[in-house]
Design goal:
This protein is mainly alpha-helical and about 750 residues long. It folds into three domains: about 180 residues, PAS domain (Beta-Lactamase, 2-Layer Sandwich), CATH 3.30.450.20; about 70 residues; about 400 residues, Growth Hormone, Chain: A (Up-down Bundle). It has 21 helices and eight strands. A four-stranded antiparallel beta sheet has the order 2-1-4-3, sandwiched between helices. A two-stranded parallel ribbon has the order 5-6. A two-stranded antiparallel ribbon has the order 7-8. The chain is elongated, with a radius of gyration of 34 Å. The relative contact order is 0.08.
Amino acid sequence: MPEHVPPPPPAASLGVESPRPGLVSNPVVRLFAATTVVLVLTMILTGLYAFGVSQRHLLPELDFNARAVGDAIAERVAVAQEVGIPFERLVGMDEYLGSVLATQSEIAYLGMTDPTGKVLYRAGLEASEIHRILTASPSDESGSQTAEDGWAFWLSRASLLVSGPPLRRDAPRAGYYDTILPLLFQGQPVGVLHIGVSVDFYKEEISEEAGDVLIAVVIALLVAFEILIAVTTLTLSGPLDTLLATLRQAAQGILVRPVQGSVREIDRLAHHMGGVVDALNTALTGLKARVEALRARWPERQAQAALHDIDQGLDTALRPADPAQTPVDLASVFIGARVCAFLFVLAEEIARPFMPVFIQATAQESGLGGNALLIGLPMSLFLLVVALTMPWAAGWSERLGRRRTFVLGAGVSTVGLLGTALDPTFGALLAWRALSGLGYALTFVACQGHVLDHAGPAQRARGVAVFVGGITAADICGPAIGGMLAARIGFEAVLGVGAGLALGAAVFGMWALRGPSVVLPSPGAGVGSMLSLLKNKRLVVVLLLSAVPAKVVLSGALFFLVPLVAADLGATQAEIGRLVMLYGLAGFVLAQPFARQADRWSLHGLAVGMGGMVAGLGLLPLLFDVSMLTVSGAVLALGVGQALSISPQLAFVLKVAEDDLARVGQAPVVGLYRLVERLGGASGPFIASALIAPCGLGGAMAALGAGVAVAAVLFCVVFLVVGAAPHPDDRPDDPADVLPQGNGRREAVR
């Protein structure tokens, strides 16, 4: 009788993606949805209240600043009076008022009148215009809506309903708030100083604050969402899914001891179930031992047949599980890596909108000037260190462990960011940015490896998309936060905040990336293994026509040129941050849906090619018109294109290198891919800075876009012709698959 072979465990046992009841009936989903609704409402009301409070105090603050300027002018007039110069004969007063006005952007005019109201001295407006303003009737023009006010007007009205009415002073006259300051000499009035602030300036400030509050609410929601999804997945839904998968295996007779959860009740249930599994394993071992003892006691054929049937029945009903097939909750794996990626990328991204300006200022303070190539050097060095570190870090993190590698990298990033903030010299800046690049590479490799260790081929693109989702969320939050903070607390303080975030990432990673890897270190993860991959012509095409152009345009256009172009157009740091945020917003919304469809239809190559074309073509309008509108469109197109291609790109690389994976393992393939694309990223700022002189800022961006679009077209043409994998008839015969035949000839086994 043939030996009984127990059926293999279900594929789902390796990665828990169990079918669940309807979303509405799932208690975890209901809890998550209810919490999300509460968070959204709370954030909206908090944002409205904060906006309303800022409006209530804006006019008093403008009045306070105007009076401070007026006091300084009054002191100068008093000095002239004390030396005997009559108020009506002050020489050069118009020029002095003009110099004061040039330093106060919020003040529209300065005027001095005699006690009868005649304008004697003025700056900003003509005397007749100031006289018209002073004699006009007060009217509440700050609350009237114009076509230019738009959404900010309605948001302003709504916020005042939450916070209460504004702390008003006198209504404006003829479109200006006029602050009146009497001018006295020896206790007697000699004139009046009028300081005017335009209602339009007030509305501009309201619109600016409305944008900041709106961005702050969006960022707060994204951060809260990341925290919420991490807490619910890692402590509740993840352990529950793992426990349910273990119960399903137990129902099939596979005795797997459940992994203990993070919540006390789940942990207690897992402990009780573990006791049941241990008891069943002990009983099974005892029963099989008794069967063997009975076999030895009763050698009769009929008894042996009956005992064999009993043994087969035991093997069918209950069988110990292979430790390698313990259920793994993929959701917890993916989300843990996602939040870690969010934190460590956020630490770097908050410096993104002002880094070129910060480097330029540091170079000028060090006496090196503001050459474009010099500005690009620290940014390129950061990316070059990332590129050169990733190949060996991929294999090293397998040996050291993903969690230890991540914590080490986050610690190194903390030191690098602190050094960048505290040491103002250009040479030290290069060293600190290189150290930050080392930390970034270690943390990135650890998170990516944690995902790929647990995700099967059918889940790779989705797993990478979840991981990349954390990066894109940081791409949204970081520039916007950094831009707003830089305008208020300075560049160095923002870098200190980044160091704190990197340290927080290290602490969180110690908890979120717990658990061993499910793969062993690749035996051939060396330089020789990576160089041998260059024999794969399809892989070389992917690297040169997709990976490199994508990183060149990302670092050269988005990280280097966009802040310079926006600053050249007069944008503030907060506006630059919001502009760069568009890239991350597009990726956050679109990356996972695109990856899901690429996985579903197995169209990874098409997604990569189309993404490159979208990103490249979006930059071409800058060749004809350089404005905030075209720059915004370019950033948005770049975000859409990268969202379409970034997750399928790695899956396509692994597909193209499928034969090489079996030969050298995963680490050399991923290491070579990351090395080449990061080298492209390191060259981006240099290429962009070299294009500025002949093409200008807008032309440089358009040239980068044209190059990426051409590369994407060539990529699509090549793989339409040759396909993603060689035809079976084109594969070289494996010597192990060639058997000698009876006539001495060798024939390949098909």
